[in-house]
Write a structure and sequence with these properties.
about 300 residues; paralog of FGE (formylglycine-generating enzyme); globular
């Protein structure tokens, strides 16, 4: 074999090897959003929609719990991409290589029984799989901005029945299915449960299940004092307040399939230990358009 033929064979072999191994750091370029794209889908089928910058009032005006106030104006100055749905069992298994033994083989159900620490592991491995550092949990401000979807009003009961899997809609006998929930019946007797993502109506931003189905972890630490000292630029609150000094609690938003319809609202929040999993705990993911800028703050 002469030298020219040998080099040609070597180059061809290297090309095949690179392609088989993923093509290097740019291998998933086609699964990243093009500049200004309104939406994109990554390599494991997770769909994202672009959220434009905006200003909104975060929090509940007359909060039923003190940690849900006070209302403060937040300015989101950069676009980001929000997951169209909650992370599904199928997507979780593709990234983590694990299948929760309590899950049935229903790939489109939202992943549950998660702890905040598990959600962080998922994000870390998703970034590795996609050869980037853009994926993360949403901040509370980003989450609430998306849940409100440009509205200053809370969805009424009729709208929630169309858009949210909750105590009144997620069971075998519930309003909208021909029977009313009887007094004294419980989540267990009604068989309230998770449902496939995107099987109710989307909000004005094109996002499904922002309220109900499973609760969603945010990046923020949970402070019982609410939003008194939280950032106004939309970033996650990672501060250690005197009232919660040393706490490992993180924030959950949105309610679940077990939440009464009267308790579903965009400002609903509570906190749990970062290592505590529960059957109603799930997650949704953000694709950050400028992760390096966030890290340098």
């Amino acid at each position: 074999m002469n030298s020219v033929v040998f080099r040609a064979v070597l180059i061809c072999s290297l090309s095949v090897c690179i392609a088989a191994c993923g093509g290097g750091s740019k291998s998933n370029q086609k699964y990243k959003p093009k500049p200004g794209a309104k939406e994109f889908t990554n390599s494991i089928g997770m769909q994202f929609v672009r959220i434009e910058p905006g200003t909104f009032d975060m929090g509940v005006k007359d909060p039923p719990k003190p940690e849900e106030g006070p209302v403060k104006t937040v300015i989101l100055s950069e676009p980001f991409y929000m997951g169209v749905t909650e992370v599904t069992q199928e997507q979780f298994q593709k990234i983590m290589g694990e299948f929760n033994p309590k899950w049935k083989d229903e790939p489109k159900l939202p992943a549950n029984m998660l702890a905040w620490s598990t959600a962080q592991d998922f994000v870390h491995k998703l970034n590795a799989a996609e050869h980037c550092s853009n994926y993360r949990l949403p901040s509370e401000a980003e989450w609430e901005f998306c849940a409100k979807a440009g509205s200053t009003d809370e969805p009424d009961e009729a709208a929630l029945k169309e858009s949210a899997w909750c105590y009144q809609t997620s069971g075998d006998r519930a309003p909208g299915k021909g029977e009313e929930v009887a007094d004294g019946e419980t989540m267990r007797t009604l068989n309230c449960r998770r449902h496939d993502v995107a099987s109710k109506t989307a909000n004005a931003f094109g996002l499904y299940d922002m309220l109900g189905n499973v609760e969603e972890f945010c990046q923020d630490r949970f402070h019982k004092s609410g939003y008194e000292n939280t950032p106004t630029d939309g970033s996650a609150d990672e501060s250690d307040s005197p009232a919660d000094s040393g706490s490992t609690w993180r924030t959950l938003r949105g309610g679940s399939y077990a939440t009464p319809i009267t308790q579903l609202y965009t400002g609903k929040r509570h906190g749990v230990s970062d290592s505590y999993p529960w059957e109603t705990f799930g997650m949704r993911v953000v694709y950050d358009t400028s992760p390096s800028k966030k890290e340098s703050k």
